[in-house]
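Hi all, posting the design record for the shared folder.

TITLE: backbone redesign
STEP: 1 of 1
STRUCTURE INPUT:
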């Protein structure tokens, strides 16, 4: 049964939540004539620092830029190993390579899809310098054992909280546990600045160096005085104005995203061929970035991809979050170095459903009904090839 007209893609995978307050804030900056390194930058940094409960925040042009600068400023480089999950966005590993270090890909917990602390313990070598702890999909990583391992082996911790603004572990906001934490504000995130990111840290000296590195290595008042090799990783006043306006309603945004997640759970909880993301976890508060279900074990990756195509034909955009980094073409040299069975099994069956703050209840119902209809048409095939019902 066609719930939506074919070939229409009426329900996008994501959409930013932009209101009149955001538009007015950006227009106000345009009228001010101060488009970069103005008062909005400091205000936005204070907004995030206060929200996370950290003394220092440094705005940058993207989450990727933030991860790069953190590793660089912490002195990680050639000959160093950084422990990181393969099941995450590729920017995490890219940032490690930017500084000349080696990413060591580790397997994940099958429930949270975050890095498995037991795998961290087994992978530590004399070359290990840092753990890049990713809070995948807004679900906090298991920080207590990760912190214990870091203390025991004298490792740095960078939290990749790019998908997790507002998430909490043991009553503390993620991003506040390690040597530095990084958030991102791409349009599909909890709040957006268009493009942009933020680094938070307890360390005043580290924050000062991050500010210099993001601004072409300047650390003094002279525009043409560059103390070290730096980068143009600044965040514009337009982006900061947008971020400030979004942060003024962050609690309402996060509450609405949780309502969307709960609506999907209610609509799909009786579907035996889906493994749904947890709504609650002990000692953790989830900040919903995406809603990623997993097909049950009898489905192959071919089946998942065919199902994506079938949903797209019905006007529903879905995604495959994530393809493991160690299987990416630009990481071919890493492909055979790691045995990551949990990552490879679960990544092959992920199905990210349309998820954004303003998605309507009728759209959620249409997604659930269309998905369930497609699953009902699917019988297992011995060959592992996608079944014709999913391709029609």
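Okay, here is what came back for every position:
SEQUENCE:
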């Amino acid at each position: 049964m066609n719930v939506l007209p074919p070939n229409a893609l009426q329900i996008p995978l994501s959409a930013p939540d932009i209101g009149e307050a955001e538009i007015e804030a950006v227009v106000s900056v345009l009228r001010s004539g101060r488009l970069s390194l103005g008062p909005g930058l400091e205000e936005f940094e204070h907004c995030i620092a206060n929200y996370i409960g950290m003394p220092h925040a440094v705005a940058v042009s993207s989450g990727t830029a933030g991860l790069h600068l953190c590793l660089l400023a912490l002195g990680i480089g050639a000959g160093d190993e950084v422990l990181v999950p393969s099941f995450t966005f590729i920017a995490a590993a890219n940032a490690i390579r930017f500084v000349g270090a080696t990413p060591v890909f580790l397997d994940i917990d099958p429930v949270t899809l975050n890095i498995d602390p037991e795998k961290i313990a087994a992978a530590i070598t004399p070359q290990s310098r840092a753990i890049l702890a990713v809070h995948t999909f807004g679900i906090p990583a298991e920080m207590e054992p990760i912190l214990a391992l870091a203390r025991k082996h004298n490792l740095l911790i960078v939290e990749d909280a790019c998908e997790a603004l507002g998430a909490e572990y043991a009553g503390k906001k993620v991003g506040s546990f390690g040597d530095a934490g990084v958030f991102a504000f791409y349009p599909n995130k909890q709040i957006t600045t268009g493009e942009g990111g933020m680094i938070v840290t307890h360390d005043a000296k580290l924050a000062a160096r991050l500010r210099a590195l993001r601004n072409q290595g300047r650390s003094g008042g002279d525009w043409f005085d560059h103390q070290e090799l730096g980068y143009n990783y600044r965040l514009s006043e337009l982006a900061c104005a947008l971020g400030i306006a979004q942060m003024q309603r962050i609690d309402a945004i996060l509450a609405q995203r949780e309502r969307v997640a709960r609506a999907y759970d209610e609509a799909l909880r009786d579907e035996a061929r889906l493994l749904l993301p947890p709504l609650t976890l002990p000692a953790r508060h989830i900040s919903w970035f995406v809603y990623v279900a997993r097909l049950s074990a009898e489905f192959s990756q071919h089946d998942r991809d065919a199902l994506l195509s079938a949903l797209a034909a019905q006007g529903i955009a879905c995604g495959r979050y994530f393809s493991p980094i160690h299987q990416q073409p630009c990481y071919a040299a890493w492909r055979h170095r790691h045995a990551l069975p949990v990552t490879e099994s679960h990544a092959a069956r992920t199905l990210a459903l349309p998820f954004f703050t303003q998605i309507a209840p009728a759209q959620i119902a249409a997604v659930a009904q269309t998905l369930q209809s497609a699953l009902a048409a699917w019988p297992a095939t011995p060959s592992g090839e996608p079944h014709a019902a999913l391709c029609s």
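COMMENT: Residues 250-268 form the longest helix (19 residues).
Let me know if anyone wants the other runs.
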